[in-house]
Amino acid sequence: MVNQNEGPVMKGKILKIFKREKGIVSGEALSSELGISRVSIWKHIRKLQGLGYNIIATTMGYRITGSIDALFPWEFPDRESKIHFFPEVTSTMDIAGELARKGCPHFTVVIAGCQNKGRGRLKRIWHSSEGGLYFTIVLRPQIPPVLSLRLNFAASLVLAQLLRQMFRVDAMVKWPNDILVNGRKISGMLSEIEAESDMVSFINIGFGINVNNDPVAKEAIPTSLRYILGQKISRKQLLSGFLNKFESYINNTNLDNVIPEWKKYTTTLNRRVKVVTSRDTSEGLAIDVDENGALILELADGSIKKVIYGDCFHI
Description:
Helices cover about 30% and strands about 30% of the residues. By secondary structure, it is of the alpha+beta class. It has 3 domains: about 5-65, Winged helix-like DNA-binding domain superfamily/Winged helix DNA-binding domain (Arc Repressor Mutant, subunit A), CATH 1.10.10.10; about 75-265, BirA Bifunctional Protein, domain 2; about 270-315, SH3 type barrels (Roll), CATH 2.30.30.100.
């Protein structure tokens, strides 16, 4: 795990100076501007080189060439102290759960290069190979548990809107919180909640987004941004954009408005679906989603059934 101390902040400052100067920067200039010794500068640069940054040392100083799609804490200015990056983990949900129970702050983010035991809904496996974007956000909203699902819908709504804005793709939401492009799954989400008395203690929302990975061999009807757009996508820019947009949304939007807005982007309503829960399977016409996110089904006999959570398959 990358230490959450002054190290990430200082590395971020060094990289920012390189990008600003766009040429050779002397160790003395870095030391003077950052207020640390030239030996400390050298140690930070050696660490950055070891992590894949192409920083060249010359007799006159240092310069950086090219760029890498890195997800280290210092790549997210002003968020460094809340970002935890791992090259590989079992699941970001596992790590986020541990951090949440130890009292980590609101909007802590756990990121993984890949997961070897990524989880989907109903204990399904989420294949998490290199090139995808896998992260979990720890939220501490002051709301009762009954309203918690609205945050999941807010997350899928914001992600769909962002994909449309950044990449001009026709991203749609599928109940409860998958993202589809051209009918194929590009992102899935999983949430876990713990509550004390009548208030939420924390909600962890985990995301798996097919960015530059190739999930075709392992997933049913998948796709990826790289496949759709025909080029490699910056995971860092996508994640940074999502964190900024999602945090702004939950801080400034009345949760009463989430479900009505989400419905504008859904591909689930007014079609036949099969919903699998841990207890049973239901088939029917998806006629609505209520104010707290439950799917309303009209069954074959004309009766109405409300499903709070499950895996939904379009028929």
